Amino acid sequence: MRRRFVTLDVFTENRFTGNPLAVVLESDGLEKSDMQAIAREFNLAETVFVMQPANERHRALLRIFTPQTELPFAGHPTVGTAVLLGCMSGYNLGAHDLVLEETVGLVHCTVEPKGREHGHASFVLPRLPEKLEGAPSGEAAMAALGLNASDIGFGEPSAWSAGVAVNFIPVRDLESIARATPDASHFDGAFGKNGRSVAYLFCGETSDHAHHFHARMFAPKLGIREDPATGAAVAAFAGLIAETTRPEDGSHRFVIEQGYEMGRPSQIELGMTIESGALTRATIGGSAIIVSDGHLEA
C-alpha cells in the first residue's frame, strides 16, 4: 500500500544542513523486517515509523531504525517527528505539549510550530543518564580514531547511556578533532565493550563562540560512519557534564555543535536541572524543517 513519508533536516533552521531524517507515516501493519528494509532504502542515520499509540491520549508510537538496526531511543528522530506532528496538528496552535511512545518509554515533548514547514521541539529525557563500565583507555581510543596520545583532551574516556550506550572521548582542540578518522581494524575492539560501538568525540573549543562544546560521532557498526547530530549522545553527555563540571544548583543550558566537518552544521540544545548537586532533569531541543514530502509503496 502507499504510505506517506516526509524528510526533514533536524537541529537546524536551514534546509540541507543539520541531520536528515525520514518519517514514514501510517506505518501500522509493517513488520520489523519491512521497517528495516525501508530504513536501508532511505540510508539515512535514522528513519522513524509512526503508528497508532497504545494510549489514545498520546500523540503517536514511534519505532526508530538505523540502516542496520532498531534503536530504543534517539534524539534527532524525536525532535524531528515532534516538529512534523506539531505542524500537521496546526501550525497556528502555538507551543503545545505531546507525548510520544518509544521503546525506551514515554517521551514528553513541547512543540512550537513556526509555520507549515518548520518549528522547534524539546523533550524531557525519559531516562536520566547512567555511567557504564567498559570505556576504552585513552591510548586505545586514540589508536581507533587515527589520533595520537597528545590529542587526548582533559580527563579519560568514559561510557554513558540515556537509552543508547555511548563512549565519550575528550579531544584536545578543533584541530585534533578534525583529524579524527576511524580505523576499522581497532574501532570495535576499543568501543564495542558495552554493546554499541559508538564513539562521541568532544572538545571545549568551538567554531561558534556562542556554543559550549564541539563534537563528532562515529558508529560504523550501526551503519553510520559519521552522524551530523546525535541527540541520544547529548542526552547521555548530560551525565558526564554533571559529573565533571559540577554545575551549581539551578537550571543550565548548553549548545553542542556537531556536523561541521561534514558540511552539515547542527546545533543541539541541552537543558539541565541540578538539585543538591545531582542531575534531576534534562532536556534535548532544537529546530527542524521539512525538506520533502512523498509516498512509498510498502
From TrEMBL:
It comes from the Bacteria. Pfam families: PhzC-PhzF (PF02567). InterPro entries: Phenazine_PhzF-like. One of its GO terms (molecular function) is isomerase activity. Signal peptide: none annotated. One of its GO terms (cellular component) is cytoplasm. The active site is at 46. SUPFAM superfamilies: Diaminopimelate epimerase-like. Belongs to the PhzF family. NCBIfam families: PhzF_family. This is Phenazine biosynthesis protein PhzF. It comes from Pseudorhodoplanes sinuspersici. The lineage of its organism: Bacteria, Pseudomonadati, Pseudomonadota, Alphaproteobacteria, Hyphomicrobiales.
